[in-house]
Design brief:
By secondary structure, the chain is α/β, with parallel strands linked by helices. It folds into two domains: 242 residues, Aspartate Aminotransferase, domain 2; 139 residues, Aspartate Aminotransferase, domain 1, CATH 3.90.1150. It contains 14 helices and 14 strands. Strands 3-9-8-7-6-4-5 form a seven-stranded mixed sheet, with helices on both faces. Strands 10-11-14-13-12 form a five-stranded mixed sheet. Helix 1 packs antiparallel against helix 2 and helix 10 runs parallel beside helix 14. The protein binds pyridoxal-5'-phosphate.
């Protein structure tokens, strides 16, 4: 079945007991047993819940995976992956990553005796050079947050497989959604999503998910979920499943709108740089066409004039709300240096290319003409910064 059919149908059969067409919300913690130790499939919410199972089946189907495990947040899913490591292990990570993941790697993981080397995975050769005997995991974020740079998943997976003990390749695919990219088919071992973003799609749920084809990895990730308890609420699972049913349709509209916004930005003299994989000018265009099945709705731009220009621009915008997060119906703009990436040191921000003039757009589902008009009128107010 094709993507949008799976989005509507996978894991979402009518309820066998009642015929309810929409999978019911099982908002409860404990389940009656037939006899001591004889559960009918579920016993306790942390261990499992039918609403979560439905969501996991849907997510696995969208990623072309055998298994998916859902968590209470994207960061809980990051922590679950980290639980696969032991002291003394070495991790190679994309330099350009979400600041929360960077914070987790530098503040939490390194404290447990796990070394993390950040490299520009955009050049796979850097991964080969950073590989050591103890490298157990390669962490890729593609497209990266906020710059939207791409890493060649198949190339990195190929390098990993050449090692004597091949490290796991994990791809944070949040910015793409399963509609635009299927990392497992490109050789990744685990794909991660902050389902807070495109997958739930309505800016009203926090959640995370991991998908894999490996039975042992699935068991280990599930064991972390059960042992440590970063459990999503059934209602959040239900809302996420409701969002998934329109994922393919939303992603098509997101990318159509994002292309219109990116073109409007590219045409304006107050804009120094625009990054969007759907633009002909995108530096990694060939890789985008080869690796991605869509270009998503995230656009990044550098305004001339730094922070003062950003302040003037954001205050003039009417349809782009100044807020963190991404992937919802409402268009958002964020200033990475003072918002999503404020927790990085100025040196780390500079190393990641996050300048004062950089803004990230999560292009929503409003009418594209309204969005373009809004961008143009706000940019036209930036005369001093050309
Ligand atoms: C690329 C990426 N990965 C992971 C996360 C963490 O997800 P959450 O906020 O759901 O914990 C985010 C959040 O913004 C993100 O953008």
């Amino acid at each position: 079945m094709r993507f949008q059919t799976r989005a509507v149908r996978a894991g979402q059969k009518p309820d066998p007991q009642t015929g309810a067409v929409v999978p019911p919300l099982y908002q409860n913690v404990t389940f009656e047993m037939d006899a001591p130790g004889a559960a009918r499939g579920y016993d306790y919410l942390r261990t499992g819940n039918p609403t979560r199972s439905a969501l996991e089946e849907a997510l696995a189907s969208l990623e072309g995976a055998r298994h998916a495990v859902c968590f209470s947040s994207g960061m809980a899913a990051v922590a679950a992956v980290a639980s696969l490591l032991s002291p003394g292990d070495h991790v190679i990570s994309s330099l350009h990553i979400y600041a929360g993941t960077h914070r987790f790697f530098t503040k939490m993981l390194q404290k447990t005796g796990i070394e993390v080397t950040f490299v520009e995975t955009e050049k796979p050769e850097n991964v080969r050079q950073a590989l050591g005997e103890d490298t157990r995991l390669i962490w890729i974020e593609t497209p990266s947050n906020p710059l939207g740079t791409l890493t060649d998943i198949a190339a990195v997976a190929g390098i990993a497989r050449e090692a004597d003990t091949p490290p796991l390749v994990v791809v944070d695919s949040t910015m793409a959604s399963p509609f635009c990219q299927q990392p497992l088919a490109l050789g990744a071992d685990i794909v991660l999503h902050s389902t807070t973003k495109y997958i739930s799609g309505h800016l009203d749920v926090l959640g995370g998910a991991l998908a894999t084809n490996d039975d042992d990895l699935h068991q280990a990730l599930y064991d972390f979920q059960n042992a440590c308890g970063p459990t999503p609420s059934p209602f959040d699972n239900w809302l996420t499943l409701r969002g998934i049913r329109t994922l393919g349709i939303r992603m098509k509209a997101h990318q159509e709108n994002a292309l219109a916004v990116a073109r409007a930005l590219e045409d304006h003299p107050s804009v120094a740089m625009v990054s969007y994989p759907g633009l002909e000018s995108f530096p990694q265009r060939e890789l985008a066409l080869r690796q991605m099945t869509g270009f998503s709705g995230m656009v990044c731009a550098e305004l001339k004039g730094g922070l003062p220009a950003v302040q003037a621009f954001t205050s003039r915008l009417e349809l782009f709300t100044l807020a963190e997060s991404l992937g919802g119906a409402q268009s958002l703009i964020s200033h990475s240096a003072t918002m999503t990436h404020a927790s990085l040191s100025p040196e780390d921000r500079a190393a990641q290319g996050i300048t004062e003039g950089l803004v990230r757009f999560s292009v929503g589902l409003e009418d594209p003409e309204d969005l373009v008009e809004d961008i143009r009128q706000a940019l036209d107010g930036l005369q001093p910064y050309r």
